[in-house]
Every structure is written in C-alpha cells, then in structure tokens.
What does this fold into?
Amino acid sequence: MAMATTIVAYAQNPITADSPYQIRYASNLTIGDSVVNISNSGGNGGVTLQSGTTAQVGGSICANVYVFTPDEEIVSCCSCPVTPNGLVSLSAQRDLIVNPLTRGTPTSIVIKLVATNRQAGTTAGTFNCTNSAAAIDPAGANLAIGMVAWGTTLHANTANGAGSYAVTETAFTPATLSTSEISRLNQTCAFVLAQGSGFGVCNSCRLGGLGGVRQ
It folds into this structure.
C-alpha cells in the first residue's frame, strides 16, 4: 500500500526542538495580547565571530511566519532574519493581526513558522529574508535547522473568578512538513504579496523578547 510522501525536517536530523517547521496557537486576542519569541540555536552553522541583526551574519536563518484563522483562511505572512544566539519577537495584536487579509480581526489564530536558509540578495555578497515566506523550495532543499520558538496565550482562569485569565507560555511544537503543505504555504503567501495593498503582510520582527502581560 502506497504511503503519502512527506519531508522530514532535515534528512540527517530527526524532528527536534529546532525543527524547521513549528506550530502553535494563540487565543482570546480580544482579551489580551499573545507573543512569539524566536531564537537561533546556531544549528545552521556560523562562519565568523561577526555579530548583528541581519541575514548577512553567518549562520543566520529566515524565520517565515504564516498566520491562519481557525477555519484555515490566511490572515498574514512575513519573514525576518534571526542570527545565531539572537532573539526576536512578534506581538499577535500589533504585528500578526493588525493588518489582516481576512475580513475582520480574528480572536484566535494558528501560527506556523518555517525556517529557511537566508535568501540571496540582488547585490553580490548580500543576503536578506524579504518575501522568503513565499519561497520555500518545493523539495524542502532550503529548510534550515536552528530555529527555537516560544509563545504565550490566554486561558480562562475560573479559580480567580469569572472573567479572569491566566497567561501560559510554551514552546512551539515541531512537526513534519509535507510537500502539499509547502505548496499551500507558498501559494497563500504569494497571493498575499501579489495584492500589493499591504493587507495580509505582518510586521517584521523586533529585536528582543516579549513576555506575558499580567491580566
């Protein structure tokens, strides 16, 4: 019996905490914010002691972000470089759903992250992550290890009375990225970028981490 073809994160690496493909959710966004914190373990390598915050730093990865509503509509996509040992972050309210492609603002979202090798720039010797969220290689050849990510979300906390919420922070869940999902992510983000209106393009990452806000 034929089995469906899937791409394991990296042929020589099992799915681990720094898998190229990771997923989680954020809920109750009308009550409070959720955040995403992304770092780079250095698993993609590094060639110099150079530091900085751009994709030109050796060992950098592109963190490609895809946001969906619970019924699978694309909300936004974007990408940003993450240097080895660096830390960048995104706010759900201020970055991921602030300019949605969908009608209305979602109250809960699915967040998918895909790490790829930095993209060649238009100038020799330069690299960037611009629009790389729409350019995952169909065979997974440009997937990169090294990405580690955490996120927060709000849950009702009835122990403190009705209307109370608590913040939980957990790591993103590594997963296997199938060829059909690569195609879907590429197509949906390419559609967003092709609109040219700016709707559906999330804000780029900010340097540093964000934490849960006390409710």
